[in-house]
Amino acid sequence: MKHLRTADDRFADLPDFDFAPCYTDIDDTAGGTLRLHYLDEGPADADPVLLMHGEPSWCYLYRHMIPVLTAAGQRAVAPDLIGFGKSDKPTERGDYTYQRHVDWMADWLQQIDLRNITLFCQDWGGLIGLRLVEQMPDRFARIVVANTALPTGDQPMGAAFRAWRDYSQSTPEFNAGRIVHGGTANGLTEAEIAAYNAPYPDASYQAGARQFPMLVPDSPDNPASEANRRAWDVLRGLEIPVLTLFGAEDKVMAGVEKLFQTAMPGAAGQNHRVLSPAGHFLQEDAGPELARATLDFIAG
Fold this sequence. Notes:
two-stranded antiparallel ribbon; Rossmann fold; 10 helices
């Protein structure tokens, strides 16, 4: 599988991002390997909080949550999905499938052998992370669901999602930093916008970011629909605790938290919250607050 690797100097001196890189080689499912980048902060023997990002961000999204988690004695592990951040980036859009994203992350998770995990998942971090829970429920202790979903295509996607998908395919310049900026309530600095663009020296590095919106199951016969239905069958039967933390200003995910609250038994009686002001990328708007809510959830 042909891929690109963003040069390290693209990530020099990013604001509030003084973390050591970690790398694991994973099976690319096509006879080769890909290098996956992740952060691993805090005590190595502590129970991990797995922080999974989505589209078109990378683990930089969690820079304000990680210090709060580690100061409380937690281990914070934040991977870059393949195609994003410091992870390798296959160059062909057809190399990216929903199933491959799940397989890539499952390989990595088993290699570093995380257990008793608190999953914090947002955007595609949920679409992939919740599939990992379905596959390996014994590794997970609890789930924080933040502005994400697990669609099967059996219900129509909303107008806000369709508008985003159309934009993602038609815009001549896919500016990841500006997209993240537009998905926050409080905005980003120019340096932060540049940090979200750092993984992409040019458009040839953006195949994964461009392809992600097209992989969301949007019809009952989508290639991923049946797999997500099976995942929901498992998730509905799990008793592990589930907390929803959603941003009030997110138009794409508005109201989706109610599905998790009613469908997953472990969501009953939890301190679910809708935060404001907070947009789709609520880690930017309320990172420390989200970390504290996660710590309270773990303690509870």
